[in-house]
Write a structure and sequence with these properties.
heterodimer, A: alpha+beta, Enolase-like, domain 1, five-stranded antiparallel beta sheet, 12 helices, 14 strands, 25% strand, B: alpha+beta, Aldehyde Oxidoreductase, domain 4, 3 domains, seven-stranded mixed beta sheet, five-stranded mixed beta sheet, 21 helices, globular
């Protein structure tokens, strides 16, 4: 591997200052580096590795009346302990707790999990049902753009981020409605340090009928998938056996899992359906 | 030193603190690194090997088959070459070795070599191998017969038959395989992470026979082995020695985790058909076991793995009519070798599940079927060996039944599953296993090895222990110190342990087969007694008040060093007929009973082992704390084998690459484990000790599988029990 230039800027101004000298070079951003050793191919082609994890602007959680903003490089364990997040997005906490191990969560970041664009990225299904947006910032100027998470992922490992863009923060709208129920479950090969075979995140407002429902599933398609067909079907429906079965069958046609070393198509389809059933049944029990 | 302190491993501080230097941590000036060019085919002729012309090969050391003086690795049958010459027999087989200054250079050189193949038909399964009807594909064939099975079949009320299968398992020792060779004149010094320095020595002697090259072999601190470093180091120590000899420089051959997972030995996959002839009441009149092991491309240790498997075929049951047949079959896949349990885990899984199947068929509890057939004192093994000493099985069973409240829970879970299971999306199960482990080598193997251990009294009244038995994380050095310290009544600080270097220690045999404490520990005791006897002879003992240390100093002052040797031989009555498989399969057995409690989540079909109770009769726990540790570790490894560790193959290639996709249990997946130790002393073992190391693994998967069988209402037939398989069953 050729020698690399590495930066660990403390703030965005410093980053932009330093980067000017290397404008035409190939940049790779890193944050918690918990997946670094799995990405040696990507690193091989890089000229400059920029460590974003010490940039102060990206290291905070702040909020206003309508949104919580999570800095892209703040560690997952810090997010898990944040009162605002605990109060507003319990589903995100639940999902983050299933990622890696305690040690990994001390370093891993939400920005990293998103930029990695794995169909098995466990923070993604809850962020999808929370309808989060991603603020992407350009490296060379101060321009930035907001990308709705549903549009962010193109294929495994690929996002809408350009080579000279990095994630500044993730904004999540605060749900004002009362009596909303949340569901997240990840199915891995064991209880920690495991990659999902499938996962399901859901938010639902139920009052005898499904007033609205949002569903997203991981590891069952090239990207994490918002299950809009299943959602559409469930709208205004009562939760009973016949509707559950119909919803499950729509879900199974909506997802397109593969067979790989972790699991197979049949298991992924059926169990994702079972997760939906578990979520729906929890509304009426 | 009080006895609790003695239990703390002497290597604990250096290992826990990270100060221990393993082979990769050492700095050798001038050393080269090495890599292996491997076959990309499972079965093929090598047509041509092309080295790119436009590449500077001058600073690369290259070894191919034609550079090797005697191209076969001495294990048992010597059928495996150090490097393939004209033909490759598995995907990953070494063809070329390279050594160079850096890994980057090696990677580059590797890309400049092209091997051209002509494909041959590949045998990729046990069935294919068996159906080939080619005698060359049978590495070993063993039969045990007792009574008249066909006749028993006629007398039986039911014939119950089932086929079982187990998969590959990888050892996942912390330290991947590594070897280093340092040339010095006509000698090559070999260092490696290994269990058996004298196995490697023998392989090196044969490799360099006729060349005038001498070798010595040193075990370096070894980060785990589990059998994986019994036979395999002979291959890579040879590789590094060949490179070092040619380069005239030290060569380090260090496997990456991926290389280790894909291309080193594994546990043998098995197919086992069990047929039981039983009465209505559950008495087993006859048993037939047809056992097949997938050996892979070369025989390595398969013949002896098979021997242990067939000797475990009938389990812990007294069955009057038995026919056990075993085949070790060649396939074009990675060679399987030693792994904790050594054929026993496969055999016990089958017989224990067959017991479950019998219970199911007769509508009895598996405990009742066991009670009707379990060995009792003075019963005989299928080989005719009487079990008339050191028999703690029934005590073990009694203890786990009581501790787990098995009988009550068995009924409770049965009710739960029938009434609430589907609604609560949860199934519960409790399962039992009873197993043994034959201590030491099979048959009269120990008499063939004639292990020698040595103790020397040196200045300062200190004692040096010289054996070839290695510390690999199991606590052997500490056990040896405890044995000597107890007998001579001296502190640990007065006992030194010689390096495990073949030029310094006698051949006390390999560190395998749960033999070291029992066999070699016994020799150390004999040596201690020889020293004490010498003191009497030389009248050193007259002053009774003197401590051993003072006597030793006095002796040394008068007579200098005192070196004593002891050679092992089984008690005379222990005889085994290797042709007919009759007599003493093992000099003694360690016994264990285990109970697993599990839950199956009906949303995800995942099995969770909630609680595990296990009782082990090991004769005597020389180091109680460490014995418990062994049992805990074996249990965890067994949980992995039972429900997590899956190694799929595709066209002869292992699909896993390391920790990311080879799933072993983490601390989050381990059940609560209740360990109980029973001590039914073995009269010939040190302080009564017999086998421990492997036994804790053997009974785990059968107990878990029995618990799963209860919850799904069907006998489990295949390991590992993944959620995908549970989904299929339900």
């Amino acid at each position: 591997m050729k020698n690399k230039i590495t930066f660990s800027p403390k703030n965005i101004a410093e980053l932009q200052n330093k980067i000017l000298d290397y404008k035409s070079q190939k940049v790779v951003f890193v944050a918690g580096c918990t997946d670094l050793f799995l990405k040696t191919e990507k690193l091989k082609n890089a000229d400059i590795i920029i460590n974003l994890s010490e940039i102060s602007e990206l290291n905070k959680i702040f909020s206003n009346e309508n949104y919580v903003y999570i800095g892209s490089v703040i560690s997952m364990n810090k997010i898990i302990q944040n009162q605002k997040i605990i109060k507003n997005f319990p589903i995100l906490i639940q999902a983050l707790r299933t990622i890696g191990s305690v040690q990994i969560r001390n370093r891993a970041t939400l920005g990293g999990n998103l930029a990695n664009a794995s169909p098995a990225g466990d923070s993604i299904p809850p962020l999808m049902v929370l309808e989060a947006e991603i603020l992407a910032q350009n490296l060379f100027d101060d321009s930035s753009k907001k990308i709705p998470i549903i549009k962010f992922f193109l294929e495994p490992g690929k996002t809408l981020l350009k080579d000279d863009e990095f994630i500044q923060h993730i904004e999540i709208p605060i749900l004002k409605e009362k009596n909303i129920s949340y569901y997240f479950r990840k199915v891995g090969q064991r209880d920690s340090l495991t990659i999902s075979k499938t996962s399901l995140a859901g938010i639902c407002k139920y009052n005898g009928k499904i007033k609205w429902i949002k569903l997203a599933a991981g590891s069952i398609a090239p990207t994490v998938l918002r299950l809009s067909e299943t959602e559409k079907f469930l709208l205004n429906k009562k939760i009973n056996n016949s509707n559950i079965e119909k919803a499950k069958s729509i879900l199974k046609s909506e997802i397109s899992p593969i067979s790989d070393i972790r699991s197979n198509i049949k298991y992924r389809k059926e169990v994702t359906g079972n997760l939906l059933e578990e979520f729906l049944l929890s509304q009426i029990s | 030193m009080n006895s609790k302190n003695k239990e703390i491993r002497i290597d604990a501080v250096s290992k826990i603190s990270g100060k221990e230097k393993y082979l990769r941590d050492l700095n050798f000036p001038n050393r080269l690194l090495a890599t292996t060019i491997r076959s990309a085919r499972a079965s093929a002729l090598i047509k041509r090997i092309e080295f790119a012309k436009n590449f500077d090969w001058s600073d690369i050391t290259i070894i191919s088959a034609k550079d090797i003086p005697n191209n076969s690795v001495a294990i048992i049958k010597n059928d495996m070459p150090f490097l393939a010459e004209n033909q490759v027999n598995y995907l990953g087989e070494p063809i070329i070795l390279l050594a160079a200054e850096s890994l980057e250079k090696l990677e580059l050189a590797k890309s400049k070599i092209k091997v051209e193949y002509e494909n041959l038909p590949a045998i990729l399964s046990i069935e294919q191998s068996e159906n080939s009807r080619n005698k060359k594909n049978i590495f070993e064939n063993i039969t045990i017969k007792k009574g008249d099975f066909p006749k028993a079949k006629k007398r039986a009320d039911f014939i119950i038959k089932e086929e079982f299968a187990t998969g590959y398992q990888e050892h996942i020792y912390l330290e991947p395989q590594v070897a280093m060779a340092i040339p010095e004149g006509n000698t090559i010094h070999i260092f490696g992470s290994m269990q058996c320095p004298y196995y490697v020595q023998k392989a090196m002697d044969e490799l360099f026979q006729g060349t005038g090259i001498k070798t010595d072999v040193t075990q370096t601190p070894t980060g785990g082995a589990f059998g994986g470093k019994e036979d395999f180091p002979s291959l890579i120590c040879g590789h590094s020695a060949l490179l070092a000899r040619k380069a005239k420089r030290p060569v380090l051959l260090s496997y990456s985790r991926e290389e280790d997972v894909k291309f080193t030995t594994k546990r043998h996959p098995s197919k086992i058909i069990g047929t039981a002839a039983v009465t209505k009441s559950g008495k087993i009149l006859g048993l037939e076991i047809e056992l097949k092991l997938d050996s892979g491309a070369y025989s390595t240790l398969s013949p002896v793995v098979l021997a242990r498997a067939v000797l475990c075929g009938a389990g812990c049951y007294n069955i009057p009519n038995v026919e056990i047949s075993g085949l070790a079959l060649k396939t074009n896949k990675i060679s399987c070798g030693a792994f904790r349990g050594f054929g026993a885990p496969q055999a016990f899984f089958a017989i224990e599940m067959l017991i479950d199947k019998i219970a199911r068929k007769l509508n009895l509890s598996p405990l009742e079927v066991r009670k009707k057939n379990l060995l009792k004192l003075n019963d005989k093994m299928p080989t005719g060996q009487p079990i008339n000493y050191s028999f703690g099985l029934r005590k073990c069973l009694e203890n786990v039944l009581k501790k787990s409240d098995f009988e009550r829970k068995y009924l409770e879970y049965k009710n739960f599953n029938e009434i609430q299971g589907r609604q609560k999306k949860l199934l519960k199960g409790i399962g039992l296993s009873t197993v043994f482990h034959g201590a030491g080598f099979t048959g009269i193997g120990e008499n063939r090895i004639r292990a020698i251990a040595e103790i020397e009294l040196v200045s300062g009244g200190k004692i040096i222990i010289r054996t070839a038995n290695t510390e690999m994380g199991q606590g052997l050095d500490t056990a040896f110190k405890i044995i000597v310290s107890n007998r001579l009544n001296i502190p640990f600080s007065d006992i030194l342990i010689e390096d495990k270097n073949t030029s310094k220690v006698p051949n006390s045999g390999p560190t395998v087969a749960s033999r070291s404490t029992m066999i070699v520990g016994k020799l150390l005791l004999d040596n201690c007694d020889k020293i004490l006897k010498k003191f009497i002879e030389k009248d050193i003992n007259s002053e009774k008040k003197l401590s051993f240390s003072e006597k030793a100093k006095k002796y040394h002052k008068k007579f200098g060093n005192l070196k004593v040797k002891a050679k092992y031989k089984h008690p005379d009555f222990i005889k085994f007929d290797e042709k007919n498989y009759t007599g003493y399969g093992y000099p003694v057995y360690s016994w264990s009973a285990s109970i697993a409690e599990i839950e199956i989540d009906l949303v995800t079909y995942q099995v969770k082992v909630k609680k595990f109770y296990t009782s082990h009769d090991i004769g005597k726990a020389i180091n109680y704390q460490q014995s418990v540790g062994q049992i805990l570790g074996g249990t965890v490894q067994g949980v992995g084998f039972a429900i997590y560790e899956d190694m799929p193959m595709n066209k002869g290639e292992i699909q896993n690459s390391g920790f990311v996709d080879y799933i072993i249990p983490t601390t989050m997946d381990i059940p609560k484990i209740d360990v109980d130790i029973v001590e039914e002393p073995y009269f010939f073992g040190p302080e009564g000790a017999k086998a421990l190391g492997e036994l804790p693994f053997v009974g785990v998967a059968p107990a878990i599988a029995a618990a799963v069988s209860q919850s799904v209402g069907e006998t489990i037939r295949e390991l590992p029990i993944t959620p995908e398989k549970i989904q299929k069953i339900l």
